[in-house]
Amino acid sequence: MKTARGAGVHIFGVRHLSPAGAYHVADFLDKAQPTAVLIEGPSDATAEIAHLTNVSTKPPVAMLAFTEELPVRTALWPFAAYSPEYQAMLWARKHGAYCAFIDLPSSSVIGLEDIRGSAAASPAGLREDENPDLPALAKATGQAAEGTVVERSGADEGNETTASSLYERIAKISGEPDFDTYWERNFEHNLSPDAYRQTILAYSERMRELTEESEQTSRRGEYAYNAIREAYMCRQIADAIAAGHSPDRIVVVCGAYHASALGDLANAMSDEEMKLLPSRKTKLTLMPYSYLKLSSLTGYGAGNVAPYYFEMMWEHMRRGTLQELPHRYLASVAADLRAAGTHRSTAEVIEAVRFAESLAALHDGLAPTLTDLRDAAKTLLGRGELSVVAESLAKAEVGTAIGSLAEGVSQTPIQEDMNRQLKRLKLEKYKTAVAADLSLDLRENRRVSSKEAAFLDLNRSFWFHRLSLLGIHFVKAKARGEEQAAWAEHWIVQWSPEVEIEVVESNLLGETVETAAAFVLQQRLESCSTIKEASELITAAYECGMIHQMEAGRSALQKLAVQSQNVAEIAEAARKLSQLVRFGGVRRIDTAPLVPLLQQLFLRACLYFYEASQCNDEAAKPMAAAMNEMNHIASEHSGEVDDELWVRELARLSDRDDANPLLSGLACAMLLERGELSAEQCAAEVSRRLSPGIPAELGAGWFEGLALRNRYALLSRMSLWQQLDEYISTLEDEEFKRALVFLRRAFSAFSPKEKTMVAELLGELWGVEPEQAAEIVMDDLKEEEARMLDEINDFDFEDF
Amino acid sequence: MSNVSTMQDIMRKPAELLYQDELQALIREDQGKIPAGWQMSPQSVLKFIVGGTAGKQVITPKYIGNPRIVEMAIATMVTDRALLLIGEPGTAKSWLSENLAAAIYGNSGLVVQGTAGTTEEQVRYSWNYAMLLAQGPTPEALVKSPIMRAMEEGGIARFEEISRCASEVQDALISILSEKTISIPELGKELNARKGFSVIATANTRDRGVNEMSTALKRRFNMIVLPAPADLETEMEIVKKRVSEIAASYDLQTAVPADEALLKVVTIFRELRSGMTLDKKEKVKSPAGVISTAEAISLLTNSMALAASFGSGDITDEDLAAGLQGAIVKDDDKDRLVWKEYLDNVMKKRGASWRGLYAACKEMNS
């Protein structure tokens, strides 16, 4: 067993999230029986180790550091069951050894990051970690590929491209399709004692030889950062020795890159230097994590693309059945395919395992790698097509595991905000697993004195809408009834463990519910591509009480509207805006800025309106709805929108014969309703539309449109019915049957009372007494009549 | 091995003769474990296909593209499964199958060509009817199919265009592939395949649905989809290599086309195939016919033949234009419009170096 230089401390370099690393660390600790286990990680988080190793902690979990003041910075350290660091912590707890994190405290990590001005600290808070100078490495020599191993891809976006080219080269020289496969083949499958540690130690030395020189010149910030961290870690190791731990009973678990640097404690940081470390006040917390998140983290090296696969690997390693991993993986893919209805036989799974093994043998591998298994699944179970197995592969590789922590351990800023808001909005009693109904009255409560109290329900509503936007299922809106007042809202409130996780996860979007919701809205706005989406987002921003995003939504919608000619879509968006403009006061939001946009949308819809009306019956339905919206807007906002233009367009549509007859009829009805059409004009129009020789589709279709609105106005016009009656009597038998279809549809929306009135009107025309007519209508069908109706039922409706 | 090896003037040499030196060098230098019935280790087969060196002998790459596909094909053969290569026309299915058979077994000549007229006898066995009538069913009167011979010798049979055969013919393969035997009831015998026997079949994606393969048969194959060349450089490399090989074997007295001509042809083909320009800025209509890499190769050799026989010996823009016209405008008037649109919308704007070709194509297409 090789001990580190200098102090004789055992250094164990690992790749984070490496099952073999976890296996070997545990094995090594058993042999070395240390009294102190020192782990690379923020030293101010040492207290969290107790929580991490708590029996009720179930990985994946992550450690999160965040600053409380703006700008908020975060850093994240995720752990899976197969993280070597995590296994080292568990070992220490079990054996009563002292266990501590020895890297720079998170306050200094973030402090230094600010100084470096690096782009690495994205909002997603990737783990800031060793960052070998890759451009230099790539330049240095191809030797890197022969015996050395690179720990992980760079976390820094800046050098991603050069980094990947180096890894590609290593993979290519060793004949592997990618670096991950190279790593898995050469490191994850080898369980012979000490192999892992020795190779990584050698790698670390080699890697530093390659990088250090050019790093000093070309990437000094990076070099300095690593030097500071290592000096700090050395100091921590020295402190552990000073505290009485015998050097050869100390094991340091660190990233492979640092393995060779931590042996020499001569560079340990002095007290004065420690005082000079920049620092920003940070808070630390643990949070449950998910495999899905872990697999989607980019830049955090390998081993995380397939967390569930690696967990399976780790389990099989512990049971000493690593050779069964391919069977398990492929069988689970086949089982999933079967569950989804695609049958694959056991024989095919057997062949797939053999196939994967012979692929591995081509590379002199000990066992198939994930790539081999994937190719086997694709070839055998997918019959050559990846799309068949893609979903099952994702299940077998990523999995759905979500970690959990003991109650109260996790304290992210957003959770604090959540608790603060629950208190402010007097909702604490609803934080139970029992679902409760909550009705909100958004109006000012005049019986209370403080402003806060007066608008309590309104503020609750804003907050509930924000939670819904974030996908936090603490509250659920009840469906709105038609007649419901604009100032009333009904919610179902219920707390559950999932809600807790959803809250914690939202922390990555923002530190408070408000900022997170703003972030989500902003993101959606940036990616929204339809008018409908944009108008929904404006509504969402309005409901959440976020003025700023409403304005952003307004400009997004404006841009989209310029390109659209879809009248139905524009009218729908205009309706939403109109609602906001009219009821904006309820939420005490000034919706006046929306008016110009409403005008613009309305104008646009008017301009394209006539063109869009020349459509078939199928397209006429949404158009009719759009017309109703437009008409409604025109009357509600008559001072604001160009009402005259609307009337002109309606008149044009009503007059023309080449548009859809239903829409023409509807336009006529609207004009009639608005008093724009005199009785004589109406009579003339009716007689023109229903003159003999007009095909049933056009005549009856027009009537259907006319009957869509203000029926009482129609029912009061005797002349209209007379004209309709005359028109129908001119129709041929076949035409009559066709007309029936339209008339039937037109009258289907009439209430029974209205229908009776129609019958009475017609009876009057035909000289039948009203009472008699009513009797006939109410009477049961006679045999003769029933037969005739049956005949009509036999009518060929194919054309419709 | 096959008796054609003595002939020097055959039109197209099979892979095992064309690359005789390379195969011998690989066998000589082989250090890997050789599976039963194989003539070299899987690693050497891989090297033969994707290129490398064996001792002093340079092994030219036979399949240019993702080596992982070749690895998967070889792994299939190791597990004595049958291999089915699927792909668009001209994605080197047959070429790969021939070279695999040549490397593994040393004979790529046991071929069943699948057509609508292929019968079950061509998959199993038939009889020499004169002898059958004279002597009755005897082993001498038996005419073995290539597949049966491969079983007997523990070799590799190739089945080209399997999806063109009627389904009952395809089904005849099922028992052969699962039981690895052919029974000959007339002789009261059964032929058991020797170790090393396998089948490499090819199928065309454009033929899909003509005679859909049964699930039972599909289960007996490992299916590997061969993609069209991934990028311009790969495709140019393929075309260049094959064109010079073919030119050498036909003894064409023309210089192999310059890289520039290659670049133009491959660019045009890729753009028409993918339906957009290489910079992805402009959409292009695709012609109805197939415009594969193999077509590009034959177009260029065609142009070389034209130049050698009727021209100066150097390929001119006119030679290329004639070839392009023939390859792109196959039978359809629509293709002519597509080609015209491409010429005017894309090629015309490409600048001075394309002007000559543009003018020649324009004239040819008018």
UniProtKB/TrEMBL annotation, chain A:
Domain of life per record: Bacteria
Pfam families: DUF5682
Region (Disordered): 142-162
Protein name, per record: Uncharacterized protein
UniProtKB/TrEMBL annotation, chain B:
Domain ATPase dynein-related AAA: 83-221
InterPro entries, per the entry: ATPase_dyneun-rel_AAA, CbbQ/NirQ/NorQ/GpvN, P-loop_NTPase
SUPFAM superfamilies: P-loop containing nucleoside triphosphate hydrolases
Pfam family, one: AAA_5
Protein name: ATPase
